[in-house]
Amino acid sequence: MCGIIGYLGYREAYHILINGLKKLEYRGYDSSGISIINKNGYSLFKTKGKVNELEKKIYSFKNKLTGTVGIGHTRWATHGEPNDINAHPHVSNSNNLVMIHNGIIENYHAIKIILLKNGYTFNSKTDTEVLVNLIEYIKYENNLSLEEAVRVSLNEIIGAYSIAILEKSNPETIIIAKLGSPLIIGIGKKEFFIASDPIPFINYTKNVIYMKDGEMAILKKNKELDLRKIINNHKLNPIIKRLKINLKEIEKGEYKYFMLKEICEQPKTILDTLRGRLLISKKIICINGIESNKEKFINANSIIIVACGTSWHAGLIGEYLLEKYTRIPVEVEYSSEFRYRNPIIGKKDIVIVISQSGETADTLSALKLAKKKGAFVFGICNVVGSSIARNVNAGVYIHAGPEIGVASTKAFTSQITILTLIALKIGKYKSIISDLSYKEICKELSLIPEKINYVIKYNSSIKKISNLLYYTNNFIYLGRGINFPVALEGALKLKEISYIHAEGFPAAEMKHGPMALIDKNIPVIVISPLKGSYKKMLSNIQEIKARRGKIIALINKDDVQVRMLADHVINIPDTIEELSPLITVIPLQLLAYQIAFLRGKNIDQPRNLAKSVTVE
């Protein structure tokens, strides 16, 4: 959830750290801090608020911030409220050790009691300050080197962590370790970079090591990287991989916010998702992870989709697609709920885990539970080399490119695109879907990017509607069938970035309670393409209109009936019902963006949220 950055090499560390923290702010922005070490000791600055507040605090001192070794941190608060004291880095009682940490130490309270009995004092409310003092206590009590004290201490820890630690008396070393939270090492010429993801250092190097759970690394100036197992100190051979990220993908360019850029990228990102997988000329779909496990999918008793947030909504759409085209029973579970019960799954069941970052803690834990129970686990991720990607039995990358905005947009449509391909592929294997339907859907899928581009370019009605409604404090979103999850997703987007209360419902459920909310002041966003349950939706709209509800309808241009009933309409291109979520979600993303913009919100960094939820 937090962002970690570190540097050891020959360059001045300050600018690498501060610019790296800016690129990591999507992971947390409650507070931030840096520490730079040299032979004279270390400098440490930290403050509540975003990285620009840290820059202001440092401004008059930055000429003195010399040193080529340092660490930095941007925080999403777990233990202790966001303030200067709880901000990272944290120092040990002797002031010899400085540490940053992403994750949660579950047994920190028991450790804290032991340390208090041994004379240690604490300034913050964080579990991180407990951990750095535990390392110090073990180091001095047992006369150990720092690396050995770190290893022994981490074997006593219950929880998740990525840490980086400096020692004042050993200024040319950084020690890092990982369990359950992401940590990546960038390998340059006589220099090392460390970060929660590679975005902060890709303009310096694209050679990286993805650290695995239970590993620690000792980084020293002018020496080879020393990678070891935490549990037994066994030396490991690091595997260096080459990043394929383009620097332009992580820059806003002409856009004010990353979210708008990422909404507008969707025609391209869906094409990238389809590239090499949907071969229209040959009338085939190629997904290696499915093809190499064909029998498992054909003979599956059930499919369980496990995800969180927006990925869970994509999973709900996947349920409609998979059940229709494969006739395999599908359930969609919240990762956080799935892992805390005793799910009935076995060797003939398939668990599909979906995560944009590939680091979502609850989803990763659910994955491990499913494997332990013998299920075949298939992953859908965006980030190459992520923990989920490394732990599944098979999987597929969505290739949406880096998604910086906290509110997910392009990853959602790419996830739906992959789920559509998977459903069609299995359906074809099982002869559930006819050749005619298969060809029709594949052809229409290839046209979706062009239709999304139309929505983005030509829907001026969204700005007009936003100007009329941005002051409203409550919204209702309605959908039916495969567009019900889109209603949920539209409501989530509005909540996330504008802080407006919004709820999504299946339209027919309004009469079972939520209809009591309807009055002339509450906008009702209705997703009403001319396919599927259109006539039923028309009746639902009339019920709301009879109670003076304010209707904003997503409709096809040939829809006369809803156009006459609605207060405002947003035109969407026609497509087959099963692919409609790929189009209907786009106006809802734009509507949320525009309303948040008019309300003056920080769209890319909404309060209390972070992009990658790496804590439970």
Write the layout of secondary structure elements.
Elements: E1 3-8, H1 13-24, E2 31-38, E3 41-48, H2 51-58, E4 69-75, E5 90-91, E6 97-105, H3 108-117, H4 127-142, H5 146-154, E7 159-167, E8 170-179, E9 184-188, E10 191-195, E11 207-210, E12 215-220, E13 226-229, E14 235-236, E15 241-242, H6 258-264, H7 266-274, E16 278-279, E17 284-285, H8 288-291, H9 294-298, E18 302-307, H10 309-326, E19 330-334, H11 335-338, E20 349-355, H12 361-372, E21 376-381, H13 387-391, E22 394-397, H14 410-429, H15 435-458, H16 461-469, E23 474-479, H17 484-498, E24 501-506, E25 523-527, H18 534-545, E26 550-555, H19 561-565, E27 568-571, H20 581-598
Parallel strand pairs: 18-19, 18-20, 20-21, 21-22, 23-24, 23-25, 25-26, 26-27
Antiparallel strand pairs: 1-4, 1-10, 2-3, 2-4, 5-6, 6-7, 7-8, 8-12, 9-10, 9-11, 11-15, 12-13, 13-14, 16-17
Helix pairs in contact: 3-4, 4-5, 7-14, 7-15, 10-14, 10-17, 15-20, 16-20, 17-20
